[in-house]
Write a structure and sequence with these properties.
By secondary structure, this protein is an alpha/beta fold. It contains 12 helices and 8 strands. Helices cover 56% and strands 11% of the residues. Helix 7 links the parallel strand 2 (184-189) and strand 3 (211-212). Bound molecules: guanosine-5'-diphosphate and magnesium ion. Residues 160, 162-168, 199, 245, 306-307, 309, 332-335, 339 line the site of guanosine-5'-diphosphate.
C-alpha cells in the first residue's frame, strides 16, 4: 500500500514537470476518431428516432392528409367550403371540437386578413397554427432527459388507468435517465395486482436500476415513502413511482393519490415534482375523458401519450395539449426500450405534414 502511494507520488511529480502537455500524433488521431464516432452514433440515433416517429405517425398522416387533399381538390382558394371540410376532418381525427374550432378561427382570420389564400398554402398555414397552439401550452419545450438542478431527488409520480402503458413508460424513462447519467430509483406503488410489481421488477433488472417494493397488497403510500427515503439515502437523482390505475370513482382515486403524495412529503416537502399522466393515444376521445378525470383528482403537470404507433388518432396530442393546458412531455412510439421520445413539437408537426 505504502509502496503504491510512493509510486503514485513520484509519477505525479514527474508528470507535473512535463508541461505544457504535448499530445502525440497517434493520441490526437484517436481523440478525433472517438469524437467523430460519438457524433456518428448521435446522428444515427437521431435518424432512427425520426424514422420511429414517421412510422408511428404514418396512419394519422394518411388518414388526415389524404382527406385534406381531397377537400381542396379542384379548388384554388381557401373559402368557406374548404374550411367547413377542414373542420370536419380535424374533428373526426380526434383533435377535438374546441381545439378544431380554435384552429379554424385562426385560419379564417388569416384568410380575411390576407384576402387571397391559395389552397396550396393551406398545409403550411395549418402547420404553423398547430405549432403555435402546442407552443402556447409548452408542449414540446423539453429537449433532453434532464431534471431541475435544485430538485434532488426529482420525484415523478406516474398516474393513469390500467393498460395505458404506465409501467412500460417508467421502464423506458428509467433507461433514458440512466443513459443521461442520472441515478434512478423505482417504486412499485401499484400493489393492486401481483403482475404489476413483477412487471416493474423486470424493467428494473433490464435497465439495472434499484427498485423498492413490498409485494402485492402492500400499502401504496408506504411503498412510496420507503422509495423516497431510500432514494435520499442513496443520493439518487430521480425517483419514479408507479401507481395503480384502477379507478372505481374519482373520490377513491383522489384519496389514494393524495395519501401517496402526503406521505412522500414527509421526506421531501415539495414532492412529487412531477405528476405524469399517461394516456393511450389510440383510444382517442377516451383519452380525453381520462384526462378530465385525472386532472380533477390530482395536479397533473405533465403528459405522456403512448401507443402513437399504429393509430390514426395522433391528432389527439394536439387536442389534449390545448384542452388541458398541460404540456405533452413524452410520446410512446412502440413497445421497445428505445421507443419513448421526448415530445418535440417541430419534429411532430413536420412528420405529420411531410
Ligand atoms: N405499441 C405500443 N405499445 C405500448 C406502448 N407503451 C406501452 N405499450 C404496451 O401497452 C401494454 C400495457 O402497458 P403497461 O405498461 O403494462 O400499462 P399499465 O397498466 O398502465 O402499467 C403493454 O403490452 C405495453 O407493451 C407504446 O408506446 N406503443
Ligand atoms: Mg402497470
Amino acid at each position: 500500500m505504502c509502496l503504491y502511494n510512493r509510486t503514485e507520488d513520484l509519477r505525479t511529480k514527474d508528470e507535473g514537470r512535463r508541461t505544457p502537455k504535448v499530445f502525440s500524433p497517434l493520441s490526437l488521431v484517436l481523440r478525433q476518431k472517438s469524437i467523430i464516432m460519438g457524433l456518428f452514433s448521435f446522428l444515427t440515433r437521431k435518424k432512427e428516432q425520426k424514422e420511429d416517429l414517421d412510422k408511428g405517425l404514418e396512419k394519422t398522416k394518411t388518414s388526415v392528409f389524404s382527406r385534406i387533399s381531397k377537400a381542396i381538390m379542384g379548388k384554388s382558394t381557401v373559402d368557406d367550403e374548404v374550411l367547413d371540410n377542414l373542420e370536419e376532418i380535424l374533428i373526426t381525427s380526434d383533435v377535438g371540437v374546441e381545439t378544431t374550432l380554435k384552429i379554424i378561427d385562426r385560419i379564417q382570420a388569416r384568410v380575411a386578413r390576407d384576402k387571397y389564400v391559395g389552397t396550396n398554402e393551406l398545409n403550411s398555414i395549418l402547420k404553423e397554427e398547430i405549432m403555435a397552439l402546442l407552443q402556447e401550452n409548452e408542449s414540446g419545450d423539453g429537449t433532453t432527459f434532464d431534471i431541475p438542478a435544485d430538485k434532488k431527488p426529482y420525484v415523478i409520480m406516474v398516474v393513469g388507468v390500467n393498460g395505458v402503458g404506465k409501467t412500460t413508460t417508467i421502464g423506458k424513462l428509467a433507461y433514458n435517465f440512466k443513459k443521461a447519467g442520472k441515478k434512478v430509483v423505482l417504486g412499485a406503488s401499484d400493489t393492486f395486482r401481483a403482475a404489476a410489481v413483477s412487471q416493474l421488477q423486470i424493467w428494473a433488472e433490464r435497465v439495472d436500476v434499484p427498485i423498492v417494493q413490498q409485494g402485492q397488497g402492500a400499502d401504496p403510500a408506504s411503498v412510496a415513502f420507503d422509495t423516497v427515503k431510500s432514494a435520499v439515502a442513496q443520493d439518487a437523482d430521480v425517483v419514479i413511482i408507479d401507481t395503480a390505475g384502477r379507478l372505481h370513482n374519482k373520490v377513491n382515486l383522489m384519496r389514494e393519490l393524495t395519501k401517496i403524495k402526503t406521505v412522500m412529503q414527509k421526506v421531501i416537502p415539495d414532492a412529487p415534482h412531477e405528476i405524469l399522466l399517461v394516456l393511450d393515444a389510440s383510444t382517442g376521445q377516451n383519452a380525453i375523458e381520462q384526462a378530465k378525470q385525472f386532472t380533477a383528482a390530482t395536479e397533473v403537470n405533465a403528459l405522456a401519450l403512448t401507443k402513437l404507433d399504429g393509430t390514426a388518432k395522433g391528432g389527439v396530442v394536439i387536442g389534449i395539449s390545448d384542452q388541458f393546458k398541460i404540456p405533452v412531455k413524452y410520446i410512446g412510439v412502440g413497445e421497445g426500450i428505445d421507443h419513448l421520445q421526448i415530445f418535440d413539437r417541430k419534429a411532430f408537426v413536420d412528420s405529420l405534414f411531410e
